[in-house]
Amino acid sequence: MEFDLLRSFVAVAECGGFHRAAERLNLTQSTVSQQIKRLELETKRPLFRRTTRMVALTDDGEMLLGEARRLLQLEEGARRRLTSPPLSGTVRLGAVEEVAGGSLPPALGRFASSHPNVKLEVQIGVSSPLIEQLDAGRLDVVFAKRPLGTSRGRLVWREQMVWAAAETFKLVSGAALPLALYREHSVSRDAALIALRERELVWQIVYTSPSLTGVRAAVLAGLAITPLPASASEVMSKKSSKESEWGSRASNRRRPAACAERRKRDREGDRGISDHESRAAETACRNGSVRPVVAP
Asked: For 166-182, what is each residue's pLDDT tens digit?
């Protein structure tokens, strides 16, 4: 089908008549009428019901309308991409660390391949400072977290927050809940503290870091728990599993004497861990070294 015929067909359907469609397309009414007749001959189906007062789509015309619009959009997009000059310049992008460690790198790779003349400057940080830099004109685009109820920006995805802890971490009933949080005020930090206050739980911030890497280190060491998006918790679990596997392989390559010395120290109690100390919380999800938990 010719795009000119489809363009006239869509115009007549949307304008409700040949006269207004001809005005929109800057064509004569007879030209538009001839194009519709050619399209009906090509499809071998009547596309419009014509009366002296109105023009309405037939069932076949209704079916063709959606497809015609889609084809015209594809044609317009291809024309625009082929005729427009290639993009060039610099894009200053800010992103939170949870995004930077997930879907962002492959997306940036695809963008760089499609637009080789565009220079990317990427800055990783916490939501609030990144948004401040966006407002100050130092960044062009920011992927940041925003709390529920905030309407600023364009929603890209929504994700549940979970508590993440190491398998060796234990929740002690009645004790203050040890937290590892971002140093600056962040969406996840504020949401976590609000949730704990609403449930009237006793908590204590024992570790702060300006980066997710620092928070992750404290969690993996079993020092505290931290609030994370569910996907970031899964990424941490995979990473920690790989690290554990690497450590196991490395220890297997030690000399027999070193292994014997280590077993001797274990028997003497220097490295001993009681059953109670190694018991994970009953609310744990045991799919990796890092797991989502529910606060008591």
From this structure: 988 888 888 899 999 98
